[in-house]
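Dear colleagues,

As part of the handover before I leave the project, I'm documenting each prediction I ran so the next person doesn't have to rerun anything. This entry is a single chain, and its sequence is reproduced below.
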Amino acid sequence: MPEHKALNKKIGEVDYFLNKKPILDEYQVEEFENNIHYAMEYHLPIRFRLHNEGSPQELDGYCVYIHPVTKELHIQKRDSSFEKIKFDEVISVIVED
């Protein structure tokens, strides 16, 4: 049993340092969707802030496709490579003019 308590304590310490994903309301999600569609229509670069396993991450590029079923965004990065991200990971969308 002491090992079990030590493991729980260790897991708790790790979780303490991870950032929790912010709770987004429906208006923020709708604003993200509108910004993404606007940027796609006018081929404008987008800066995404993502919540990836407890640590925020930024991704710059162009959204070229949105999968309607899986809600995955296909992003063309500035170095012309592609990356897929899930819409649920997005915590901020900034359209750059």
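The chain has a mean pLDDT of 86. The longest helix spans residues 26-42.

All the best with the project,
I.
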